[in-house]
UniProtKB/TrEMBL annotation:
Protein name: Hydroxymethylglutaryl-CoA synthase
Ranges of residues in domain Hydroxymethylglutaryl-coenzyme A synthase N-terminal: 3-164
Pfam families in the record: HMG_CoA_synt_C, HMG_CoA_synt_N
Domain Hydroxymethylglutaryl-coenzyme A synthase C-terminal: 175-255, 260-366
Length: 387
């Protein structure tokens, strides 16, 4: 039985800051951000968006009435949750008015959460092949202002409808995993900015990539030449480039050249949005599908998922005959080109407002043109609006 991704939706803020301008304000050479880190633009999330609304705006693009009726499970991967108890999936189901004969759950393991969601969805669909599962990766990536992590912020949501007989990609049975109890990136309770040991985290990402890739090749009986493209978790796009270099080192130059071309297509959207944490790998998948002219049904894509703390997984899938039609249903390029550039001063002001507030407050939502918006907190409960 084939199981995989049938539809993908994506949403991010309508505001961004230009990385060249941010570099100038931080007295850095712009080439460091543009080439050294590999980021061109960074999404700036409005205070009237949280992970629930980002996800709702992404799901809204893909979910038909027929999908709603068959939905059995919603798995929400995030590390920017809005409640210590109630899951973001429950908030989302309420906001989208999903049928209530449903299971909802939030999954957390840094940037790995959505990948865990895809794994769990496959198990669920083996038991309930007639059902559909919604897997979300939604986050707001926040480091401190003027810290080394600042140029690797961003935010947004990717929503995937996982089904049997999927029309975009069918996952293959073999995958390889590895974990470490590591403090490379974490966010203590009560803090709204992540702490990161950047160099340590990069090294662990690359070490675990090698570990799971070697293991995957043994168990799947496949090697580099069997893949059309590799996509990576991209906290910033240069790290994926380092990952691809480590996989291709010493390999045939002609094959490598194709893989690096595919990587450029796969990092295009991420370089314009920044880090989505849980959604980053899947935004890169979308970027590959919409920006690579050469993909064909039947080709194999390799996925490297990494979540600090740390969990790594390498898995693969085969593109399905209708993948081009499915991807052409939404114009994601337009979401990115239709955004408005804001100044570094305006970004800093929005950054200060983008914190979880539990006290009574009402936000002005008229400036946010998204369909689903966060409106503030009333009697300790989060309130949402549909525009
Ligand atoms: N032109 C071109 N490249 C330049 C440059 C210039 N003028 N100046 C610096 N660079 C390069 C550096 O050589 C380096 O490249 P390398 O990694 O290939 O060596 C890169 O730009 C970054 O420079 P560096 O001095 O390492 O930057 P930094 O100390 O400010 O930190 C990160 C960069 C990525 C470590 C930091 O942004 C970070 O920690 N981000 C968070 C990462 C994360 O999210 N990790 C957890 C999830 S996986």
């Amino acid at each position: 039985m084939k199981i995989g991704i049938d539809k993908i939706g994506f949403f991010t803020s309508d505001l961004y800051v230009d990385m060249r301008e941010l570099a100038q304000q931080r007295q850095e050479d712009p080439a460091k951000y543009l080439i050294g880190i590999g980021q061109k633009k960074m999404a700036v999330i409005r205070p009237t968006q949280d992970v629930v609304t980002l996800a709702a705006n992404a799901v809204d693009q893909i979910l038909s009435e027929a999908d709603r009726q068959k939905l059995g499970l919603v798995i929400f991967g995030t590390e920017s949750g809005v409640d210590n108890s109630k899951s973001t999936a429950a908030y989302l189901a309420g906001l989208l008015k999903l049928p209530e004969k449903l299971q909802v759950v939030e999954v957390k393991q840094a940037c790995y959460g959505a990948t865990a969601g895809l794994d769990f969805a496959q198990g669920y669909l083996c038991l309930h092949p007639e059902k559909k599962v919604l897997v979300i990766g939604a986050d707001i990536a926040r480091y401190g202002l003027r810290t080394p992590g600042e140029p690797t912020q961003g935010g947004g949501a990717v929503a995937m409808l996982v089904t049997t007989n999927p029309r975009i990609i069918a996952f293959e049975p073999n995958s390889a995993v590895a974990m470490r109890d590591a403090n490379d990136f974490w966010r203590p309770l009560g803090e709204s900015e992540a702490r990161v040991a950047g160099k340590f985290s990069n090294n662990l990402y690359l070490d675990l990539l090698q570990e799971v890739w070697q293991e995957y090749q043994k168990t799947a009986g496949l090697q580099l030449i069997d893949f059309t493209a590799f996509i990576f978790h991209l906290p910033y796009t240069k790290l994926g480039l380092k990952g691809l270099r480590s996989l291709t080192s010493g390999n045939d130059l002609a094959i490598n050249s194709q893989l690096f071309k595919q990587f450029e297509a796969a990092r295009s959207y991420n370089s314009q949005v920044g880090n989505l944490y849980t959604g980053s790998l899947y935004l890169s998948f979308l970027s590959l599908l919409q920006n690579s002219p050469k993909l064909q049904a039947g080709q194999r894509i390799g996925f490297y998922s990494y979540g600090s703390g740390a969990q790594a997984e390498f898995f693969s899938g085969l593109l399905q005959p209708k993948f081009k039609e499915q991807i052409a249903r939404n114009d994601f390029k337009q979401i990115l080109t239709g955004r408005r550039k804001i100044s570094v001063a305006d970004y800093e002001s929005l950054y200060q407002q983008q914190v979880i507030q539990t006290t009574e407050h009402k936000l002005r939502t008229t400036e946010d043109l998204a369909k689903y918006v966060f409106a503030g907190t009333h009697e300790s409960q989060r309130t949402y609006e549909i525009h």
